[in-house]
Amino acid sequence: MRCRGAINRVGAVLFALGLLAVFGLSACGSSGSGSDASSLKFTLTDRGCVPNDASVPAGPVNITVTNGGTTRATELELQNQSGIILGERENLLLGLSGTFSLNLNPGSYVLFCPSGNLTRGKLTVTGKARPSHSPSAVLLKTAALQYRTYVEGETSRLLDGARKFVAAIEQGDLAEAKRLYGPVRRHYEAIEPVADSFAGLDSAIDARIDAPAVLGDVSKWTGFHRLEQLIWAKHTLKDAAPLANKLLADVQTLNEEVPSLPLSAAQLINGSVALLNEITNVKITGEEDRYSHTDLSDFQGNLAGARRAFEYVRPALEHEGAGQLAAKIAAELAAVQAGLNTYRRNTPLGFALYGELTQADKVKFARQVGNAAQALTAVAARIAA
Predict the structure, then answer these.
(1) Relative orientation angle of helices 135-170 and 174-190, to the nearest 10 degrees
(2) How many CB atoms lie within 10 A of CB 361?
(3) Is the distance from CB of 111 to CB of 122 less than 8 angstroms?
(4) Which residues, in sequence order, are CB contacts of 285 under 8 Å at separation 6+?
(5) Is 284 helix (H, G, I), strand (E, B) or coil?
(6) Among 281, 340, 199, 260, which Cα is nearest to 20's?
(7) Fewer C-beta within 10 Å: the chain N or C terminus?
(8) Which residue segments constitute the domains of the chain, with CATH numbers given?
C-alpha cells in the first residue's frame, strides 16, 4: 500500500473524475471506541508527524490522523521495533482525517510518516500489559490464528503461481505470461495488509513506476508492475528473466517471513479497512494495473481478504453484543461482492478489463466499497476496547 504510487497526483485524478465526495467518506474513519480507550491525535505536515514523540498508557488506544495541509506526507504508520506495521492510516489528502485502533503492550514503538522531513518519531507505551482471559479475548486470539493460516495458504499459492509466471517468462511465452499475471497477483492482493508490513518486500514486489522509491531512478523498479509494463506496454520479454527471477526470490522471502509476523485481531481489521480504502482512494482510477487493465481481479483479492478477516472476528463481536453491527458489515461486504460479480467474465482472468467500466460504474462501485469500509472501521475500536 505504501510506496505504491504518488498520492498527490492521484488526488488530481480523483478530482477530475468527480469522485472526491465518495472517497472523502471512505477515507475518514469513526472511532466508536470503548470508554476505557486512550486517544492520540497526530497532524500530517510538511515536516512529517506532529507531535513527533508521544506517550500513552498500555491498553486500547484510538489514533486519529489529520492532514494539516500538506502534500508531502499523507499517511502515518505505527511500527514495532522490527519495522512491522501494526496499524496505519494512509491516503489522507489535504483536509482528510482517519482513525485506527490497537491494543498496545508496554514498550517503544515507531511513528513513521513517509515523505515528511521528520519521518520517524517515537511512541512510548507505559504501565503494565492488561491480562485478559475473557471469552472475547480467546475468540480474538482464535481469529488471529485463523487469519494467519489463511494468509500462509494465500502466500503459498502466490509462490506456486509466481513459479509458473516466471517459467513462462523464461520460456519466452508472452501469451502464457499474460494469462497468469492477473490470477497470480490476486493472491498477493488478498494478503496485502500482511505483505505491506514488510516495507522493503512490498516495494520490491508491488511498487508502481511513480512510487517514491522509484521516482528518479527507474533502475530501482522491480516486481509485478515492472514486468506488466514490459509485457503489455512494450510487448516483449527481452531482458525480463532477471526481473522475473528477482520477483520469485522476493515472493519466496515473503513466504518465509509471514509465519514470524505478529498478528492481532485489531491489526488485521485495520489492514482490511486500509485495503478497502485503497480501492476507493487510489485503485478506482485504474492506475494499479495501468498496462494490463486487470484491476478488477485485484479488487476481488482485496475484497476476499477483507471478508475473511471480518468473518474470523465476527464471533467475538457477536459475543460482545455487537451482532447488529456485525450483520450490517456482512451486508455491506456482500453488496460489494454482488457489485463486483456483475463484471465477471468467462476468461482466464475471470473479470472484465477495467476499460469496460464507465464513470458511472466507478462511482457506484466506489460508493459500495466506501460504505463497507466505513462500517468496518468501527470494528477495530470495539475489539481493542
Answers:
(1) 170
(2) 15
(3) yes
(4) 10, 13, 14, 17
(5) helix
(6) 281
(7) C
(8) 31-131 (2.60.40.420), 159-258 (1.20.1420.20)
CA 247 to chain centre: 20
DSSP 51-94: SSEEEEESEEEEEEEEE-S-SS---EEEE-TT--EEEEE----T
